[in-house]
Protein backbone atom coordinates (compact mmCIF):
# COMPACT_ATOMS: atom_id res chain seq x y z
CA UNK A 1 0.00 0.00 0.00
CA UNK A 2 0.92 3.68 -0.36
CA UNK A 3 2.21 4.09 3.17
CA UNK A 4 4.47 1.06 2.74
CA UNK A 5 6.31 3.12 0.13
CA UNK A 6 6.52 6.04 2.55
CA UNK A 7 7.74 3.87 5.41
CA UNK A 8 10.31 2.24 3.14
CA UNK A 9 11.73 5.71 2.47
CA UNK A 10 11.64 6.64 6.16
CA UNK A 11 13.63 3.50 7.02
CA UNK A 12 16.07 3.98 4.14
CA UNK A 13 16.80 7.61 5.10
CA UNK A 14 16.40 7.08 8.85
CA UNK A 15 14.28 10.22 8.79
CA UNK A 16 10.58 10.34 9.84
CA UNK A 17 10.00 13.89 8.63
CA UNK A 18 8.18 15.72 5.83
CA UNK A 19 8.80 19.24 4.61
CA UNK A 20 5.72 21.37 4.14
CA UNK A 21 6.15 23.52 1.07
CA UNK A 22 3.65 26.24 1.97
CA UNK A 23 5.34 29.24 0.38
CA UNK A 24 4.21 32.79 0.85
CA UNK A 25 5.85 35.20 -1.55
CA UNK A 26 7.49 36.91 1.43
CA UNK A 27 9.45 33.71 2.12
CA UNK A 28 11.05 33.80 -1.33
CA UNK A 29 14.44 35.55 -1.52
CA UNK A 30 14.50 38.91 -3.27
CA UNK A 31 16.88 37.79 -5.99
CA UNK A 32 14.38 35.12 -7.14
CA UNK A 33 11.41 37.48 -6.98
CA UNK A 34 13.25 40.11 -9.00
CA UNK A 35 13.95 37.56 -11.70
CA UNK A 36 10.24 37.52 -12.55
CA UNK A 37 8.80 40.72 -11.12
CA UNK A 38 11.09 42.82 -13.30
CA UNK A 39 9.91 41.02 -16.45
CA UNK A 40 6.28 40.18 -15.65
CA UNK A 41 5.48 42.96 -13.21
CA UNK A 42 3.82 42.55 -9.82
CA UNK A 43 1.45 39.86 -11.07
CA UNK A 44 0.13 36.50 -9.96
CA UNK A 45 2.05 34.96 -12.83
CA UNK A 46 5.37 36.39 -11.61
CA UNK A 47 4.68 35.29 -8.04
CA UNK A 48 3.86 31.72 -9.08
CA UNK A 49 7.03 31.48 -11.19
CA UNK A 50 9.16 32.72 -8.30
CA UNK A 51 7.57 30.23 -5.92
CA UNK A 52 8.30 27.32 -8.24
CA UNK A 53 11.97 28.29 -8.47
CA UNK A 54 12.05 28.50 -4.68
CA UNK A 55 10.42 25.07 -4.29
CA UNK A 56 12.63 23.50 -6.92
CA UNK A 57 15.83 24.68 -5.23
CA UNK A 58 14.70 23.34 -1.84
CA UNK A 59 13.73 19.97 -3.33
CA UNK A 60 17.14 19.78 -5.02
CA UNK A 61 18.83 20.20 -1.63
CA UNK A 62 16.67 17.92 0.52
CA UNK A 63 15.44 15.05 -1.67
CA UNK A 64 18.33 12.77 -0.70
CA UNK A 65 17.71 13.11 3.06
CA UNK A 66 13.97 13.82 3.43
CA UNK A 67 11.43 11.21 2.28
CA UNK A 68 8.47 13.48 1.55
CA UNK A 69 7.05 16.92 0.90
CA UNK A 70 3.62 18.27 1.83
CA UNK A 71 2.45 21.21 -0.28
CA UNK A 72 -0.55 23.02 1.21
CA UNK A 73 -2.95 23.68 -1.67
CA UNK A 74 -4.17 27.02 -0.30
CA UNK A 75 -0.75 28.61 -0.73
CA UNK A 76 -0.96 27.85 -4.44
CA UNK A 77 -4.65 28.52 -5.02
CA UNK A 78 -4.16 32.10 -3.77
CA UNK A 79 -2.21 32.76 -6.98
CA UNK A 80 -5.03 31.59 -9.22
CA UNK A 81 -4.44 29.31 -12.18
CA UNK A 82 -0.75 30.24 -12.17
CA UNK A 83 -0.47 28.95 -8.63
CA UNK A 84 -2.35 25.76 -9.47
CA UNK A 85 0.16 25.15 -12.25
CA UNK A 86 2.98 25.69 -9.76
CA UNK A 87 1.41 23.12 -7.41
CA UNK A 88 1.23 20.60 -10.23
CA UNK A 89 4.84 21.28 -11.28
CA UNK A 90 6.06 21.08 -7.67
CA UNK A 91 4.40 17.69 -7.17
CA UNK A 92 5.82 16.31 -10.39
CA UNK A 93 9.31 17.66 -9.71
CA UNK A 94 9.37 16.13 -6.22
CA UNK A 95 8.22 12.76 -7.56
CA UNK A 96 10.86 12.87 -10.31
CA UNK A 97 13.36 13.24 -7.48
CA UNK A 98 12.00 10.18 -5.71
CA UNK A 99 10.01 11.95 -3.01
CA UNK A 100 6.65 10.88 -1.59
CA UNK A 101 4.11 13.70 -2.00
CA UNK A 102 1.16 14.37 0.27
CA UNK A 103 -1.11 17.24 -0.76
CA UNK A 104 -2.53 19.13 2.19
CA UNK A 105 -5.98 20.00 0.87
CA UNK A 106 -8.29 18.97 3.74
CA UNK A 107 -11.00 18.15 1.22
CA UNK A 108 -14.47 17.34 2.51
CA UNK A 109 -17.60 16.44 0.53
CA UNK A 110 -19.76 13.47 -0.44
CA UNK A 111 -20.70 11.40 -3.45
CA UNK A 112 -19.77 12.60 -6.90
CA UNK A 113 -18.12 15.76 -5.56
CA UNK A 114 -15.75 13.83 -3.30
CA UNK A 115 -15.09 11.45 -6.17
CA UNK A 116 -14.05 14.47 -8.25
CA UNK A 117 -11.68 15.67 -5.50
CA UNK A 118 -10.29 12.14 -5.25
CA UNK A 119 -9.72 11.87 -8.99
CA UNK A 120 -8.13 15.32 -9.11
CA UNK A 121 -5.59 14.81 -6.36
CA UNK A 122 -4.99 11.06 -6.20
CA UNK A 123 -6.59 9.40 -9.20
CA UNK A 124 -7.14 10.15 -12.85
CA UNK A 125 -9.66 12.07 -14.94
CA UNK A 126 -11.26 10.56 -18.03
CA UNK A 127 -10.74 12.56 -21.22
CA UNK A 128 -12.19 10.49 -24.02
CA UNK A 129 -10.42 7.14 -23.91
CA UNK A 130 -7.54 8.53 -21.83
CA UNK A 131 -7.17 8.44 -18.06
CA UNK A 132 -5.00 11.41 -17.10
CA UNK A 133 -3.55 12.43 -13.74
CA UNK A 134 -4.24 16.06 -12.88
CA UNK A 135 -1.90 16.36 -9.88
CA UNK A 136 -0.67 12.86 -9.07
CA UNK A 137 0.04 13.13 -5.35
CA UNK A 138 0.62 9.99 -3.27
CA UNK A 139 -1.62 11.06 -0.38
CA UNK A 140 -4.19 13.71 0.50
CA UNK A 141 -5.35 15.23 3.78
CA UNK A 142 -9.12 15.06 4.21
CA UNK A 143 -11.82 16.10 6.66
CA UNK A 144 -13.89 13.11 7.77
CA UNK A 145 -16.75 14.96 9.41
CA UNK A 146 -19.26 14.06 6.70
CA UNK A 147 -18.74 10.43 7.63
CA UNK A 148 -18.25 7.38 5.44
CA UNK A 149 -20.01 8.97 2.46
CA UNK A 150 -17.10 11.38 2.20
CA UNK A 151 -14.37 8.77 2.65
CA UNK A 152 -15.53 5.84 0.52
CA UNK A 153 -14.73 7.50 -2.86
CA UNK A 154 -11.17 8.04 -1.62
CA UNK A 155 -10.81 4.45 -0.43
CA UNK A 156 -11.65 3.19 -3.89
CA UNK A 157 -8.78 5.20 -5.37
CA UNK A 158 -6.46 4.17 -2.55
CA UNK A 159 -7.09 0.50 -3.30
CA UNK A 160 -6.88 0.82 -7.07
CA UNK A 161 -3.95 3.24 -7.38
CA UNK A 162 -1.84 2.62 -4.28
CA UNK A 163 -2.64 5.96 -2.63
CA UNK A 164 -3.23 7.12 0.94
CA UNK A 165 -5.23 9.65 2.93
CA UNK A 166 -4.73 11.44 6.24
CA UNK A 167 -7.97 12.19 8.07
CA UNK A 168 -8.16 15.11 10.53
CA UNK A 169 -8.39 13.54 13.99
CA UNK A 170 -6.73 15.73 16.65
CA UNK A 171 -5.41 18.88 15.01
CA UNK A 172 -2.61 21.10 16.34
CA UNK A 173 -4.45 24.43 16.48
CA UNK A 174 -5.25 25.95 19.91
CA UNK A 175 -9.04 25.86 19.50
CA UNK A 176 -9.20 22.26 18.27
CA UNK A 177 -10.61 21.14 21.60
CA UNK A 178 -13.76 23.24 21.21
CA UNK A 179 -15.19 20.40 19.14
CA UNK A 180 -12.69 17.55 19.04
CA UNK A 181 -12.45 17.13 22.84
CA UNK A 182 -16.20 17.02 23.44
CA UNK A 183 -17.54 13.81 24.96
CA UNK A 184 -20.08 11.62 23.22
CA UNK A 185 -22.80 9.61 24.94
CA UNK A 186 -20.58 6.51 25.03
CA UNK A 187 -17.80 8.38 26.87
CA UNK A 188 -15.45 8.74 23.90
CA UNK A 189 -14.22 12.11 22.76
CA UNK A 190 -15.00 13.17 19.21
CA UNK A 191 -11.34 12.81 18.26
CA UNK A 192 -11.27 9.27 19.68
CA UNK A 193 -14.37 8.43 17.66
CA UNK A 194 -12.80 9.84 14.48
CA UNK A 195 -9.65 7.84 15.15
CA UNK A 196 -11.68 4.67 15.61
CA UNK A 197 -13.37 5.37 12.28
CA UNK A 198 -9.94 5.64 10.63
CA UNK A 199 -9.07 2.17 11.92
CA UNK A 200 -12.34 0.81 10.54
CA UNK A 201 -12.11 2.59 7.18
CA UNK A 202 -8.63 1.23 6.57
CA UNK A 203 -8.99 -2.32 7.86
CA UNK A 204 -8.86 -3.95 4.41
CA UNK A 205 -5.90 -1.88 3.14
CA UNK A 206 -3.18 -2.80 5.64
CA UNK A 207 0.31 -3.19 4.24
CA UNK A 208 3.45 -5.05 5.19
CA UNK A 209 4.20 -2.80 8.18
CA UNK A 210 0.66 -3.17 9.54
CA UNK A 211 -0.45 0.33 8.62
CA UNK A 212 -3.47 0.95 6.41
CA UNK A 213 -4.02 3.46 3.61
CA UNK A 214 -6.07 5.60 6.04
CA UNK A 215 -3.83 7.76 8.19
CA UNK A 216 -4.64 10.40 10.78
CA UNK A 217 -3.56 13.98 11.36
CA UNK A 218 -2.56 14.26 15.03
CA UNK A 219 -0.87 17.41 16.28
CA UNK A 220 2.49 17.58 18.03
CA UNK A 221 1.08 20.26 20.31
CA UNK A 222 -0.89 17.65 22.27
CA UNK A 223 1.72 15.00 23.20
CA UNK A 224 -0.46 13.15 25.72
CA UNK A 225 -3.20 12.69 23.14
CA UNK A 226 -0.64 11.71 20.53
CA UNK A 227 0.60 8.94 22.83
CA UNK A 228 -2.94 7.87 23.68
CA UNK A 229 -3.96 7.68 20.04
CA UNK A 230 -0.87 5.67 19.06
CA UNK A 231 -1.98 2.97 21.50
CA UNK A 232 -5.59 3.20 20.40
CA UNK A 233 -4.92 3.16 16.64
CA UNK A 234 -2.25 0.52 15.98
CA UNK A 235 -2.86 0.37 12.21
CA UNK A 236 -3.14 4.10 11.51
CA UNK A 237 -0.19 6.11 10.18
CA UNK A 238 0.10 9.57 11.76
CA UNK A 239 0.88 12.84 10.03
CA UNK A 240 2.09 15.10 12.85
CA UNK A 241 1.96 18.88 12.33
CA UNK A 242 2.85 21.47 14.96
CA UNK A 243 6.54 20.67 15.50
CA UNK A 244 8.80 23.70 15.97
CA UNK A 245 7.09 26.92 14.95
CA UNK A 246 3.74 25.89 16.52
CA UNK A 247 5.40 24.83 19.75
CA UNK A 248 5.55 21.03 19.57
CA UNK A 249 8.83 19.66 20.95
CA UNK A 250 10.76 16.60 19.77
CA UNK A 251 10.61 14.69 23.06
CA UNK A 252 6.82 14.97 23.13
CA UNK A 253 6.61 13.35 19.71
CA UNK A 254 8.00 9.99 20.75
CA UNK A 255 4.62 8.71 21.92
CA UNK A 256 3.34 8.94 18.37
CA UNK A 257 5.76 6.25 17.15
CA UNK A 258 5.56 2.50 17.61
CA UNK A 259 8.24 0.33 19.23
CA UNK A 260 10.16 0.19 15.95
CA UNK A 261 10.24 3.98 15.59
CA UNK A 262 7.64 3.84 12.83
CA UNK A 263 4.00 4.87 12.41
CA UNK A 264 4.40 8.64 12.24
CA UNK A 265 5.87 11.36 10.05
CA UNK A 266 6.50 14.83 11.46
CA UNK A 267 5.96 17.99 9.44
CA UNK A 268 7.90 21.23 9.45
CA UNK A 269 7.11 24.04 7.02
CA UNK A 270 8.07 27.60 7.85
CA UNK A 271 11.16 26.65 9.86
CA UNK A 272 12.60 24.96 6.76
CA UNK A 273 11.53 27.48 4.13
CA UNK A 274 12.69 30.44 6.22
CA UNK A 275 15.80 28.84 7.72
CA UNK A 276 18.01 31.31 5.87
CA UNK A 277 16.23 34.19 7.61
CA UNK A 278 16.66 32.63 11.03
CA UNK A 279 20.35 31.95 10.34
CA UNK A 280 20.87 35.42 8.93
CA UNK A 281 22.87 33.97 6.05
CA UNK A 282 23.09 35.27 2.50
CA UNK A 283 19.69 34.82 0.85
CA UNK A 284 21.36 33.02 -2.05
CA UNK A 285 22.21 30.29 0.46
CA UNK A 286 18.53 29.71 1.29
CA UNK A 287 18.40 26.12 -0.03
CA UNK A 288 21.55 25.10 1.87
CA UNK A 289 20.04 26.64 4.99
CA UNK A 290 16.90 24.54 4.41
CA UNK A 291 19.09 21.45 4.19
CA UNK A 292 20.83 22.34 7.45
CA UNK A 293 17.45 22.78 9.14
CA UNK A 294 16.05 19.43 7.99
CA UNK A 295 19.21 17.68 9.23
CA UNK A 296 18.84 19.43 12.59
CA UNK A 297 15.17 18.43 12.74
CA UNK A 298 15.92 14.82 11.83
CA UNK A 299 18.60 14.53 14.50
CA UNK A 300 16.43 16.27 17.10
CA UNK A 301 13.54 13.85 16.61
CA UNK A 302 15.54 10.66 16.11
CA UNK A 303 17.29 11.01 19.47
CA UNK A 304 13.97 10.13 21.10
CA UNK A 305 12.74 7.26 18.92
CA UNK A 306 14.03 3.78 18.17
CA UNK A 307 14.20 4.00 14.37
CA UNK A 308 16.56 1.29 13.14
Automatic annotation (TrEMBL):
Enzyme active site: 106 (proton donor)
GO terms, molecular function: orotidine-5'-phosphate decarboxylase activity
Keywords: Decarboxylase, Lyase, Pyrimidine biosynthesis
Residue ranges that the Swiss-Prot or TrEMBL entry lists as coiled coil: none
UniProt key word Lyase: yes
Pathway: Pyrimidine metabolism; UMP biosynthesis via de novo pathway; UMP from orotate: step 2/2
Orotidine 5'-phosphate decarboxylase domain boundaries: 16-284
Pfam families: OMPdecase
SUPFAM superfamilies per record: Ribulose-phoshate binding barrel (SSF51366)
Highest taxon listed in the record's lineage: Bacteria
InterPro entries assigned to the protein according to its UniProt record, in alphabetical order: Aldolase_TIM, OMPdecase_AS, OMPdecase_type-2, OMPdeCOase_dom, RibuloseP-bd_barrel
Catalyses which reaction(s): orotidine 5'-phosphate + H(+) = UMP + CO2
Family recorded in the similarity comment: Belongs to the OMP decarboxylase family. Type 2 subfamily.
HAMAP family membership: OMPdecase_type2
Protein name: Orotidine 5'-phosphate decarboxylase
Organism, as annotated: Ruminococcus flavefaciens 007c
Amino acid sequence: MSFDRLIDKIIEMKNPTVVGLDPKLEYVPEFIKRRYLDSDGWTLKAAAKAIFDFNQAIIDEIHDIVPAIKPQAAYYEMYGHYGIRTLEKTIRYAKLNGMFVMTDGKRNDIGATMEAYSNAHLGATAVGENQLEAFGADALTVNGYLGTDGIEPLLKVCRERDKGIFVLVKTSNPSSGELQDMKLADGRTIYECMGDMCERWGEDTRGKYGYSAVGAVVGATYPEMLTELRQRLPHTMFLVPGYGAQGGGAEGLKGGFDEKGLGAIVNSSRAVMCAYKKEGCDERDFAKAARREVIRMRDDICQYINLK
